[in-house]
């Protein structure tokens, strides 16, 4: 972990020198303070959403997640979702002839964001501590949602709890 941090720090310093924000002695060039502020702001803005690859075991599954437009999962679909600290993503997966599936999408904790938020921008703690996993798979027949961090990882299986199901049904007013 230390090697990764040292590598990131060295790459960041090299980048800042390359774009003219740092001189070779490591001091901030006076004329480029606005550029640095813009760069930092862009860094925080970039951490405000995450992309999830959504798939279904059966063809023709329609998926609704919170206020987003309903999508059909014929092949896997990529969707961007905002990071959150306290919110949840409720879903409704349905297919003709099969009982609809309701629940909450499992979210991952961003320990890296926590570290950066504490160091640089504490109010961001209220916006970005959790985000969607990169991969999800919905199985309506087994009433389960699978998720994983990396494409080659094993699926983690989640069965929505009765309270999650009721929460999502209330949200979708059914």
List keywords for this structure.
2 domains; 4-stranded antiparallel sheet; 4 helices; about 30% strand; disordered N terminus; elongated; alpha+beta; about 170 residues
How would you describe this structure to a colleague?
The structure is a single chain. With 174 residues, the protein is an alpha+beta fold. It has two domains: 1-46, no CATH class; 48-171, no CATH class. Helices cover 29% and strands 30% of the residues. The protein is built from four helices and eleven strands; from the N terminus they run ααβββββββαββββα. The chain has helices spanning 2-18, 33-46, 111-120, 162-171, and strands spanning 49-56, 62-65, 71-72, 77-82, 90-95, 98-104, 107-109, 130-132, 135-139, 144-148, 156-158. The strands form three sheets. A five-stranded mixed beta sheet has the order 4-1-9-10-11, with no helix packed on it. Strands 3-2-5-6 form a four-stranded antiparallel beta sheet, covered by helices on one side. Strands 7-8 form a two-stranded antiparallel ribbon. β10 (144-148) and β11 form a beta hairpin. The radius of gyration is 20 Å and the shape is elongated. The relative contact order is 0.15.
């Amino acid at each position: 972990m230390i090697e990764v941090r040292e590598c990131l720090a060295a790459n960041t310093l090299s980048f800042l020198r390359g774009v003219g924000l740092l001189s070779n002695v490591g001091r901030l060039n006076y004329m480029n303070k606005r550029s640095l502020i813009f760069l930092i702001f862009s860094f925080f803005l970039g951490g405000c959403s995450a992309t999830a690859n959504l798939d279904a075991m059966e063809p023709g599954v329609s998926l609704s997640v919170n206020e987003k437009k309903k999508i059909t999962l014929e092949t896997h679909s990529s969707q961007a979702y905002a990071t959150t600290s306290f919110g949840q993503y409720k879903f409704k997966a349905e297919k003709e002839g099969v009982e609809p599936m309701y629940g909450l999408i499992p979210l991952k904790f961003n320990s890296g964001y926590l570290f950066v938020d504490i160091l640089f921008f504490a109010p961001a703690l209220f916006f970005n501590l959790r985000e969607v996993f990169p991969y999800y798979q919905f199985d309506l027949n087994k009433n389960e949602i699978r998720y994983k961090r990396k494409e080659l990882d094993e699926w983690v299986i989640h069965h929505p709890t009765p309270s999650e199901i009721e929460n999502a049904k209330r949200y979708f007013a059914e």
